[in-house]
Amino acid sequence: SGEDGTLLRTLQGHTDNVRFLAIGVDGTLFSGSHDKTVRVWSLADGTHLITLKGHTSCVFAVAVGLDGTVYSG
Questions:
Q1: What's the CA gap between 5 and 72, in Å, rounded?
Q2: Which residues pair with 46 in a beta bridge?
Q3: Cα 3 to Cα 37: distance, rounded to the nearest angstrom
Q4: CB neighbour list of residue 12: distance below 8 Å, 6 or more residues apart
Q5: Which of 32, 54, 57, 73 stands 20 to 30 A from 4 (CA)?
Q6: Beta strands 37-42; 70-72: pairing state
Q7: Can you tell me the distance from the alpha carbon of 1 to that of 7, in angstroms, rounded to the nearest whole number?
């Protein structure tokens, strides 16, 4: 369960430091990185779902609205 501090899984994919995490209402995890991407993961099993590209510099913030809209910058 991880409640005792046990590592549950390691998510691999970013090529630089991860700055922020956000959890979506649908059970997804969003990670923003110095590699200029936002990655979307399934919290249920850790599967990488999609990589969002387009930032021209580091992603310093990620937020997810109640309607599922992702905001990053």
A1: 29
A2: none
A3: 29
A4: none
A5: 32
A6: unpaired
A7: 9
